[in-house]
Each structure stands twice: as structure tokens, then as C-alpha cells.
Amino acid sequence: MNRHDVNADSQLVAEWPFPMAAALGSSVRAKGIEREIKGHLSFPDRKHLAVDEGAIRLTFEAGEDHRLTEASKVVEQVLGGVDTLAVLPREVDDILTISPRERLKWTKDGRLKSAGMRTVKLRGRAKAVTFHVFDPRHIEDVQDRDLASVWRNEDAQTTAENRRRAGARAALTRGAKDARKTTAAKKRTGGRDQSPTLREWDTFETEGLLR
User: Fold this and answer.
1) Which of 32, 62, 114, 150 has CB atoms 3.0–4.6 Å from 10's, for a disulfide?
2) Please, where are the H alpha helices in the chain?
């Protein structure tokens, strides 16, 4: 619900409370909601929109009632669907306090469920960028259940187990390599023991030659 006023400077003002619940506690997503509203306004009207102190505010000069009315309709339309507004990657990172690497890994293995792909052309870049977007209800569920911490612990345990198995495999490989070397050495010596031996040892011992 919005309120239309004329302020002390004879300006026309329309105001709405900012949908804090839709921001999921993220300043990055709050900024994204602001950009979404401005993106639906006509270019000349964007400079008349401000988000400040928990309020969304449109301000026009006196006599611009029609422009205020039309811009207000746009703001209300966006706010009507803000709860279902897709969550962007940077917003996910901020909401869940995770790294981009974790987001990419968990999206790839299905723990973070993608709600589809979006392609945008960024200013200053020759190629468009394609990325996953996410359902806000799914991200809210992950946040409420602190699943990021659970997944992070699972990954740490998996990494430790993989390292243990890799160490065991390396030990087996070294053992097999040493066995092959021993077999090769025996083949070169005809299977004889390479350690030196004394012939007729019994004779030497009987005659006391070694005493």
C-alpha cells in the first residue's frame, strides 16, 4: 500500500515500505530489488526513485501527477511479485554466506537447485554471460536449515576420505613397483642370491682357519 503526499517543497511523493522479508537479510539482494524496480521504470523516471530508511520513494515536481501515477503503477506491479523474484548468484553468496566456488559445486551436484538460466549482456564485455538463478523459497529453506554448514562439513569429510584412499593407493603402487624391481633383479642374476658366500665352509670351520 502506498501513500501519496505533497511535501513542504510542493513536490509530489509516493511511498511504499521496503519488502525486507523478500531481501532475505541480504543487502546485496535489497540492492537487486531496487535495480529490478528501476529497470521497469522508463529511463527518465528512474532518477525519481529512491530507496532510503526502509522506504521506496517516488518524487516528482508539482503538476506531474500523471507521471507519478504511471510510475507508481510500475512500482506496485514489481512489488506485487517481489517474493517470487529469482535470486541471482551474488545474492545467493551473500544470503547463505558461501563462496562462489561452493555455490558452483553445490549447483553442479544438485544440492543447490537451479531455477533456470539467465543470459545478460554486461556493459564493457563483448560476450554475454549466462548463469543459474534460484527460487527464493529454496534459498530461504537452505538458509533456515543452515544447510550450507551441513554441506561444508560433508565436503570436508569427503575430502579427508579421498585423501586417505589416495594415500592407500599410492602405498600399494609403491609396493607393487618395489616388487617388480625385486623380480627384475632376480631375473638378471638367474634367481641366485646376490650376497657373497664361502665355499666349503665346513672345512674352514673344522680346521679352525677362521679362529
Assistant:
1) 62
2) 20-23, 27-40, 43-46, 65-80, 89-96, 100-108, 136-144, 147-188, 201-206
Helices 100-108 & 147-188, crossing angle to 10 degrees?
A: 80
**Cell numbers of 110, please?**
544438485
- The C-alpha atoms of residue 83 and residue 72 are separated, in whole angstroms, by 18
Q: What is the mean pLDDT of the chain?
A: 87
5: region left, alpha or beta (phi > 0 left; psi from -120 to 50 alpha):
beta
Given a cut of 70, whether residue 1 has pLDDT beyond it is: no
pLDDT tens per residue, range 53-98: 899 999 999 999 999 999 999 999 999 999 999 999 999 999 999 9
Q: Could you give the angle at the alpha carbon of 38 between the alpha carbons of 33 and 42, nearest 5°?
A: 155
Model pTM score: 0.73
Q: Is 110 left (phi over 0), alpha (psi -120 to 50) or beta?
A: left
- CB neighbours of residue 80 within 10 Å: 9
Instruction: Note the pLDDT tens digit of each residue in 159-168.
Output: 999 988 888 8
